[in-house]
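Moderator note: this is an archived Q&A kept for reference. The question asked for a predicted structure of one protein chain; the sequence and the answer are reproduced below.
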Amino acid sequence: SDWRRVWQAMSRVSGLPEAASKGYSVVHTWEKAAPLEEEALSTLQKLSRVAATRPVPKHVKEEDRQEDEDGEEAATATGRDEPKGEDGDGKRSKGNALHDAQQFYRWFSELEAARTNETEGKYKEYASTLHGYRKSCDDILDHEKNAKLRLEQLEKQHKYVIETIRRIHNACENLVKDRSRLAEFAQAIRNKLEYFDDLEQVANKLQSTNVDVESDSFLSTVRKLDECITFIGDHPQYADSAAYVAKFRHLQFRALSSVRSYVTNGLKRAKQQVLEGLRKNGNLAAADGSETSLLYVRFKASAPELKSTMEEIEDRINLPEYSKLVTDCLSYYFDTRLTLIRPTVEERIHEFSEAKYLPSLLRSGFACLVQICQLEFQLFQHFFPRSADDPNNLLPLIEPVFTIMYDIARPLLIHVNDVDTLCELVEIVKGEVLDDQISRKGKPVICLRSLVEATLSDVQERLTYRAQTYIKEEIGGFVPSLGELDYPELLYRNNQEASSSKEQQEENGVEIVEASESPVEIEEDSREDNIYPAVLLTVEFIPKIYYSLGSEIFAGLAQEAVEACTLSIGVASKKVSKTASILDGLLFQIRHLLILREQLAPFEASFSFVDKELDFSHMRDHLLKILNGEASMLTLSASNALFQLMSKGAPTVRERQKDSKRELEEQLKSVCEAYIMTVTKQMVEPMLSFVTKVSAVRSAGSNQEKPLREQAFASVEKLRTAVARSSEALASELEDIVKLTSVYLPNASTRAVLFQPVRSNIAEAHSQIAQLLESDYNEADARQVSLLSSEQLEQVMDLLG
């Protein structure tokens, strides 16, 4: 196209600059690589026509003018004359156009020269600036290199200085450590030598005639002695340690002797002042109560300085020397106090014992001892605070005072035979003294506990002995009178009196409270006048010893009492059976065994114990062999009679468990069964005998060819007689038996337990006879026998409840 032709013409011109040739090459290459389509070329031509008709914008004019000015400045700066335009000023007029190629080439050359000058000027100026910067950087690098070399030298010198300082510092620290170690070593030597050097100083203080035990210097001297003895004793390897220990112990002995003398003298002074006060006041002291003030307040005020000294000594009581010193001081203190209070205590105890009534003596005596123990503990705590931490340390003083009362009370105790009095003594010692006074007042009287418990053991031992005697003599050896065995008349009389009294109370408007029924109770009939005396003694005796003795001792005594009472009831039952009837004897025994069981039920303790006894049966056999000559005592072998006797004939221990409650239940069961069988036999004995004979004959198998009704023992007449006798007994005797049983056993539930088996036995006897009548007899025989029907029998047995 047109541009291609223009560039070709420009290339043919010999004066075409190199830039124009390169620009053409670029345009040619561009046109060749990316040719425009027809549509694009048409669009470009349209734009060219429109642009040719439009005026030049103002900002373009300004840019052209600025470019012209820049071109002039560049030309001026390069010193070359710019070709002038046709207007003669070197510039082409804005309104002039290029008319030929020469003008264009000239204009283009001018333009390229101006552009080159402009571009090269900037680059040259920038290159000049860069050269200046490079030179400055080179200078900086040289300075930096020099500085780095100097810094390395400085670092080497600094490291050298630091290493030197470190070595000097370590050397100084080692010197300081050596100095401290040597100083400590020297101080340790001085400290150890002080224990040896103090010998002379301590000896001078203790050898002086005016040794003041109360002074602080004396106490510090004693402490120093202890330290020296402990230190030198712990280091026996030191030179002359044994000699120094001996010297220090000698000085310690003198110091402790001074303390002992000081304490004893102080106690003596206090004792003398109290005794003088007692002598001056005489009997008035006890009358107005000032005796207590003299014995305790004045005694405490007379030796106030002893407290601090004893505190210091008691702090070292773990050392044997001080322990012995404290023991000696306590012993002397107890002797002094015992000397002062013994007369007063003896006088009071003798006043209490004038009535010869042991319960009063124990009650008043223990009250006095508790008061004295309290006061003595307070005084003891004042003088010996460390020792008072254990109240039992006061026991050496309280025990002799307690012995004064015990020596008076023990002979009286030995002569007490009444079980009630002994139980009262146990209640006083155990309940009032141990559980009340000592437990309530606590630490000040705790040392009395062991002494009171010893007294309680003596009283319980005496009670145990008298209880065994009581069981043997009063319960087991009880001999009833005729009136006490007048049963059932005794019950009739007592019940009649009770009814009369009840009626009289109802007439007077007194409300009567009915007792509730229970299978094991005897209700209102269990009054003392209706109970066999041996049973009454037993049920009164057991509660007394239950609260007064230990569980094991109580179990043994209760077992003995129940066993003795049961035997006594059995003996009395036999006597009642002889005087009244067998049924009375059985009901008597059931009645009182029930009462006894009822009274034992509330006790939770066990009524069983293990009875141990020696079995000499083996020894008896060996002795018989020796006496019969079967074994020789002269042989020197294992068959020697004495050797055999000692090795195999020794007695053995046999243990037997006894339970009084179980034995009582077994005996009650046995008696109830005997009662049931007795009543049953009394009601239906003929019928039972007849059935027994029939069973025996059938078991033997004899007379099987003859019918039962044709045999002699089982004839209709025999059967009718047996049934008639039983029916008569049921009609006439059953009601009397029920009434008699009601007298002995008022409780309906108890009677029902007994009557139920009787009812079953009677019904069983009638049932067996009815079966025999049905199987072996005819209807005529049944009518002749007249056996009670089920309804008739039920009506008769309604009496049994």
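Archived answer notes: The radius of gyration is 69 Å.
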